[in-house]
Amino acid sequence: MTIFEVRERYLNFFKKHGHKIIPSSSLIPENDPTTLFTSSGMQPLVPYLLGEEHPKGVRLANSQMCFRAEDVDEIGDNRHTTFFEMLGNWSLGDYFKKEQLPWVFEFLTNKDEGLGLDPARIYVTVFSGDKESDMPTDTESVDIWKKLFLEKGIDAKLVTLDTEKHGGEVGMQGGRIFAYGAKKNWWSRSGMPNNMPEGEPGGPDSEIFYDFGTEHNNSFGEKCHPNCDCGRFIEIGNSVFMQYVKRNGTFSELPKKNVDFGGGLERLTAVSNNEPDIFLNNVFRDALHILEYNSGKKYSEQSEAVIRSFRIILDHMRATSFMIAGGITPSNTEQGYVLRRLIRRSIREADKLGIKEAVLAEVSAVYGKSYAKEYPFVSESENKIREEITAEEAKFRKTLTQGLREFEKYAKHSTPDIDAEVVFRLYTSYGFPIELTEEMARERGMSIDMEAVHAKMKEHRDKSRAGAEQKFKGGLADGGKETTMLHTCTHLMLAGLRKYLGKDVHQAGSNITAERLRFDFTHHEKVSREILDNVEKYVNEAIEEDAPVILEQIPKESAKDEGVEGSFWEKYPDVVNVYTIKSNDGVVYSKELCGGPHVENTKMIHDTGKHFKITKESSSSAGVRRIKAVLIKD
Ligand code: SER
Predict the structure, then answer these.
(1) Cα distance between residue 228 and residue 165, in whole Å
(2) 10, 267 in Cβ contact below 8 A?
(3) Can you tell me which atom of ligand 1 is nearest the CA of 42?
(4) To test the ligand 1 pocket, which listed residue (100, 127, 187, 242) has its Cβ within 8 A of the most ligand atoms?
(5) CA of 599 to the centre of ligand 1 (A)
(6) Interhelix angle for 334-352 vs 360-370, to 10°?
């Protein structure tokens, strides 16, 4: 079965049971500044799980794009990916355990409408209770599961293991239903009940595992049990009975009990094919061929270490495609940094595979095609994805070669440890990422005193921050008249750039003195003089219009909806300052989020008899251009 068939069957199944199918939310959370990525299906639905009414009703199902940055280091085994789709069905205060568990079991085992899995390969877990938070054992789920298995002719014995450690000691004991404690069978975005912050919903859950029947590997524990990581069992779904919320330090029942089911689409596809390697499905196939062709290595014939390199690239490039298509560009902060890390890591793994030419853009491009039907926005951004990856690859290949050479020098004649100073120098002189040095050291069994490295980094950051603080807010050197005029011109110029280069242009940095403005913005190629002339004209026209600069304070969400231009929205308060430059007959030249200061009217600039001129356009860093501009008299 392909990923698409599994997704379709699941959604159809739940549609038949009265669920409305809702689209996936964006990978970058829209109204949630607390987290960089959407990492579970329930995340965009939190307000509804807490009681808000959903416009589509009380039974919902979807396939949600997710990204788990915390799993980056685990990529390389046969079951983890950073980006994945999570199939989900929700009851918003409607049905509960009695309906949920039979439905999901039916979906998994039914040959015609579901996945047709052999029930004998299915094992389940339930919540054994938690003394600390005074939460009871979920006996109701145990009873439901017993009945469901019995209908398939399986006498399902309950075994209580409480912890993974206990599981590793005593093993399966002929069990089918396994009860674990809060660490394994309680779900909230912040984990166990006592870790939940105020206002967070959570509840006991019941996970489903598929048994591949492989030999237990006792480096993972003496004995095997469903939550053992040896590879025999894989978790394929989780029904969370979200019925509690933390208020005033204690747990209260939510007014309505919810169900939150999530199942990894890639994993469900893998088990449908009884194939333990989730990278062997249809969406990875073409990308894998490109890597095999360019490396001259066949995936199925390689050692674990080589297969790991293949998997890292396959995973990271898929995530990269979705991220760039979702509007992220490689940078040194937040989502952009995670993206940069994925690309750089892939470059290194490609290098390890013996691929010396740039191939990642080509690899990533095939994902747009694989997902053309469900997520057309990926293929629509194909050019942008290629450009960003090509730019990053061109730049980082050089860094990698230099960094590797330096690293080898130290590694050859040094002790089993790599000096913190060396790690730091590789970073500051060659831009060689610290986590990469760490990874290389680990591969050779060498160690690094990371505490010492972090101390050095902090010292470095504090120094540069002290420099930055001396600058005026908003990149202004001072609040003088010349500087303020140039600041207003900066807004007009950004609007002009967006008019002529497109809406992917955003501010990436700004520094304004009385003499000139310097402005960094996201764009991946040189801007022609012709376009710069048009932008200049746009700014000068607004200056000659004697247009008022209007300051309004509006709620952040409405500002976003109105398409106000701004970067770093998450850093602004709920009510934001928006500056609009608008001619007297209503032409809006610019509308931008900003802390000021600005001239009150472009007449102030007009009256000086000066006009706006772009003096220089150059590259600033990968995917970022830099403009310098002035106000001058002819
Ligand atoms: N929220 C649960 C999970 O992410 C089930 O969807 O596992």
Answers:
(1) 9
(2) no
(3) 1
(4) 187
(5) 51
(6) 110
Decide: 110 and 104 in contact? Cβ < 8 Å.
Answer: no
Q: Is 191 helix (H, G, I), strand (E, B) or coil?
A: coil
With CA atoms as reference, report the closest residue to 506 among 524, 516, 525, 520.
520
Whose alpha carbon is nearest atom 1 of ligand 1?
42
- The CA 110 to ligand 1 mean position distance, Å, reads 23
Amino acid at 365: A
- 617 Cβ partners below 8 Å, 6+ apart? 526, 527, 532, 625, 626, 627
Please state, as a whole number, how many other Cβ atoms lie within 10 Å of the Cβ of residue 362. 18
pLDDT of residue 122: 98
CA of 88 to the centre of ligand 1 (A): 8
Query: In the beta sheet, which residues pair with residue 292?
Result: none
- Name the closest-CA residue to atom 6, ligand 1: 262
Q: What is the pLDDT of residue 471?
A: 33
Question: How far apart, in whole angstroms, are the C-alpha atoms of residue 310 and residue 279?
Answer: 9
- pLDDT class of 397 with cuts at 50, 70, 90: confident
What pLDDT shows up at residue 586?
A: 86
Task: Note whether 60 and 100 are within 8 A (CB).
Answer: no
Any idea which residue has 């969370």 for tokens?
Answer: 240
| Axis-axis angle for helices 282-295, 3-16 (nearest 10) | 170
User: What's the token pair of residue 340?
Assistant: 């940069």
**CA 89 to centroid of ligand 1, rounded, Å:** 10
- Contact (CB, 8 A) for 297 and 353: yes
Distance 10 CA to ligand 1 centre (A): 16
* pLDDT value for 416: 72
Cα(267) to ligand 1 centroid in Å equals 14
Q: Whose CA is nearest to atom 3 of ligand 1?
A: 262
Give Cα 420 to chain centroid, integer Å: 30
- Mean pLDDT of the residues in the chain: 91
Assigned fold of 3-279 = BirA Bifunctional Protein; domain 2 (3.30.930)
pTM of structure = 0.71
Q: CB within 6 Å of ligand 1 — which residues?
A: 40-42, 88, 187, 238, 240, 260-262
Region at 248 (left for phi over 0; alpha for psi -120 to 50; beta for the rest): left
Q: Where are the domains of the chain?
A: 3-279, 281-395, 414-468, 475-633
pLDDT tens, 103-130? Answer: 999 999 999 999 999 999 999 999 999 9
Q: Which atom of ligand 1 is nearest to the CA of 263?
A: 6
Amino acid at 565: E
Of all protein residues, the one whose alpha carbon is nearest to atom 2 of ligand 1 is 262
Ligand 1 centroid from CA 43, angstroms: 9
Distance 386 CA to ligand 1 centre (A): 33
CATH superfamily membership of 475-633: Threonyl-trna Synthetase; Chain A, domain 2 (3.30.980.10)
CA-238 nearest atom, ligand 1: 5
